[in-house]
Design brief:
The complex is a heterodimer of chains A (145) and B (291). Chain A is mainly α. Chain A has helices at 7-35, 41-67, 73-118, 122-144. Chain A is 86% helix and 0% strand. Chain B is an all-alpha fold and 291 residues long. Chain B has one domain. Helix content of chain B is 84%, strand content 0%. Chain B has helices at residues 2-5, 11-28, 35-51, 58-69, 77-105, 110-128, 136-211, 217-266, 271-290. The chains are: A mainly alpha (145), B mainly alpha (291). At the A-B interface, helix 1, helix 2 and helix 3 of A face helix 4, helix 5, helix 6, helix 7 and helix 8 of B.
């Protein structure tokens, strides 16, 4: 996917890359003249300083351009709102599951109680006790969450 | 649901349960948002957060640039400090958004199916006052109830994800573009230092050393040490620049992945058709962006 940068970015990149290329050419010429013995070391270092001054101009232009970019804080707040929305939805889903789980266990406990009432025997008593224990544990776990 | 499932007995009930699941599945599948694609897009969002570790060293590069600049520093350190904070925070925000998308897309709680099974089972016992053994039919009912539970949450999640993606898309795009613009600019001085600036400095030191008197032993030693430091800095800057490029790639990939999701929720086609299409698009578009 091609990224179309902001015109400020495009212009800044074009201008600063030209400046850097110019500075590099200047330095290459200085090296060549130093090697050929046409420049003293001091003169070479002066040329090197001019090269650095051009690079400095390019760098400063980059930071100026960055400062001129439109702020994105407001847009980011909307993304943060979407995150909150998604987290809320996840919470809703969990709550629904919890409620459904508790309701199911409650129904099971009620049915066990009814069964014990009509057919009291050690098996149904044990099943009822187990269902009530499961229900209370589920409620406790859900509340702990 | 209970009425439908408990009609008849034995094999009839199991068959009815399976039929209900099939009918619900066919009805609910008529959405156009694939969970697989949401998960993939969410993962890329998380990658943006992971690759944002390339941002804080911008301050060290800034210091290096100012040392090389000489008398007049060019890198505005306080401003760059602010950029670092913003870029890091926004990247982590996108990662959080990706995680939240994934969490909702991948939500799978077996308790929901279990609860539906218990509701059916408990209801039956209340009505018949007899304890049903957990036979093959009950097992089929349990499976059916579990599938039904998943399908019910799936439809709801699909609808909600669609709404969130539609609402967030323009803002996600603008935030990603804003980050890309800033990073593309801020990495430019680092690119130059890594590819040219430091190498030129080392070359200049070599020239100075070549022209220095043979007796300047202390100076020679110092220049050697300086060259070693520059070599190390060059390596550090190269790695730093590569990390920033990798971060940029993650941003581009996330932007594309979100655009694919957005397009998928705005088109009205059946999931069978769209799912493969979305998956193919993600498979085709994302790997080259991340390379």
């Amino acid at each position: 996917m091609a990224f179309s940068p902001d015109p400020i970015v495009e212009r800044a990149l074009a201008v600063t890359r030209s400046l850097r290329a110019l500075a590099s050419q200047l330095l290459e010429r200085a090296y060549a003249r130093l090697d050929a013995g046409e420049l003293s070391l001091n003169d070479f270092l002066l040329m090197e300083q001019r090269h650095q001054a051009i690079v400095n101009q390019a760098n400063a232009a980059i930071y100026d351009a960055t400062e001129r970019l439109a702020p994105i804080a407001e847009e980011f707040q909307r993304v943060e709102a979407a995150v909150k929305d998604l987290e809320h939805l996840q919470g809703v889903l969990k709550t629904v599951t919890d409620v459904l789980n508790v309701s199911a266990q409650l129904l099971l406990a009620v049915s066990a109680l009814a069964l014990m009432f009509f057919d009291p025997n050690p098996g149904t008593v044990a099943a009822t006790a187990s269902a009530i224990f499961d229900l209370s544990r589920t409620i406790r776990d859900t509340a702990a969450h | 649901m209970r009425t439908l499932i408990s009609v008849g007995s034995g094999a009839d009930r199991a068959g009815a349960a399976r039929l209900v699941v099939l009918v619900v599945w066919a009805t609910l599948s008529l959405g156009c948002l694939s969970f697989r694609s949401v998960t993939a897009a969410g993962s890329i969002g998380q990658l943006v957060g992971a690759r944002a570790t390339s941002i804080p060293p911008l301050l060290i590069y800034c210091d290096a640039e100012n040392i090389l600049a000489g008398a007049t520093p060019t890198c505005p350190r306080p401003r760059v400090e602010l950029y670092v904070k913003e870029l890091s925070a926004y990247s982590q925000g996108l990662a959080k958004y990706g995680t939240a998308l994934r969490n909702l897309a991948e939500y799978s709680d077996p308790r929901i199916g279990e609860a539906l099974r218990l509701l059916t089972y408990g209801g039956e016992r209340l009505e018949g006052f007899n304890l049903q053994p957990l036979d093959a039919t009950s097992q089929s009912l349990a499976n059916g109830a579990y599938q039904l539970g998943l399908l019910l949450t799936q439809q709801w999640r699909r609808k909600e994800l669609k709404r969130v993606i539609l609402t967030a898309h323009p803002h996600v795009t603008l935030v990603v573009n804003g980050l890309l613009n800033r990073v593309v600019l801020l990495r430019e001085p680092i690119k130059y230092m890594a590819e040219r600036g430091i190498a030129d400095r080392r070359r200049t030191l070599v020239e100075i050393d070549r022209l220095a008197p043979v007796s300047d032993l202390i100076g020679r030693q110092q220049r050697q040490n300086q060259m070693l430091t520059l070599l190390q800095l060059e390596f550090f800057l190269r790695n730093g620049h590569e990390a920033l490029v990798a971060y940029t790639k993650a941003l581009l990939a996330f932007k594309r992945a979100h655009a694919i999701l957005f397009e998928s929720v705005t088109l009205k086609k059946s999931i069978g058709e769209r799912d493969q299409e979305i998956y193919d698009l993600l498979k085709k578009d994302l790997p080259p962006l991340l390379q």
